[in-house]
Amino acid sequence: MSLIIHRYIFFELLPPFLINMVFFTFLFLMTKILEITNLIVNYRIGLLTVLSMLVYSMPFFLQFIIPMSVMMSVLLTFLRLSTDNEIVALKSGGISIYRLLPPVFLFCLVGYLMTSFMGIYGLPKGRLALKELAVRVIASNLDIGLKERTFNDQLEGVILYVNKVDLKSKTLVDVFIQDQRNEKVVSTVVAPKARLMSDPEKFTFYFRLYNGTINQVDLDHRSAHMIHFDTYDLTISPPKPPIGTPGGPKDEEEMSIPELQQYVRQAEKKDDRYYLALMELHKKFSIPAACFALGLLAFPLGIQSKSAKTTFGIGLGLFFFLLYYIMLSAGWVFGEAGVYPPAIGMWVPNVVTAGFGMVILVRTARERTVRLDALMAIYARLKSSFTKPENQRSEVGGQRSENEKT
Q1: What is the pLDDT of residue 384?
Q2: 148: which strand partners?
Q3: Domain ranges of the chain
């Protein structure tokens, strides 16, 4: 009998979970609509490349979307079961609230594994893949922007003139470059052939020039020098990448767990990145564990809110997740500053949320209600504030129509 009930509850949790995943992912895409438009219009990037960038950046958001969807799914499922009096029927059959926990914990375990995969494997690989893709995007954009027989000043501090551009081989013929990035020395480079090169690891771009000359004018000493070269690499500063900020050494989100552990062991506490690396290491485990904490909180809240509507349940879930996120953000800020150990900042939100959920669960099992009157009153006020203007407009419209008839 218990197995049938557990299976029933577990499969009841799946539809709202999938709906919430789709909904919050859609919200994420809506926040990226301006960047997508910028990529297509200004960078002339294909739709497939844009989709690849979004996929690579999804693990960062999914590590928050999955715990939130787990919480909303548990809350809405038990809110529906309570509203339909199915919880009352189960209690009448001698089944306690605690015996309904196994499918909830199994569901939270699935969310924990999914979030752990996103944080431990998906996030580092996605960030590195996004870096490489951004390098290719900018390199191709530079190639497209190089116009033949035209002075190009799109590169910061560098004026470029190319007689001919071969986009297939990325070869530039008859190149003239004036480098004005050094205020004291102006360099003019002339070469019959050059190629645009890039280093994805360091996120650098440079022109490799062959068999040319460099004329340097020292403005302070009023002197000039000429240098002949066989091969010369001129580093350039590309535009900002359209999504993310790739480049340089790996940041904390790009590191794997062994790399983070090694960095923490080798770095000193005075290092600015020491606390960031330590917090990122704890975050890879604390955020997946939030599936259990938020699920444990949502379970009794759904049962206690049987008199409320579904919209109130959604607002209740968003409210408590917002509180959790505020605690997590505060822990990150203070942990980064070294006010207290990063472990406290990353794990206290889970402990507080789970502790609050345990208190509500015990009260629910003992048939003691948890007063949500204050939240219900706030919800009623917000609802009335949005519905009043509509009612007033309809009344005004009715009065106008009556006046027109008279």
Answers
A1: 64
A2: 162
A3: 2-137+250-396, 155-236
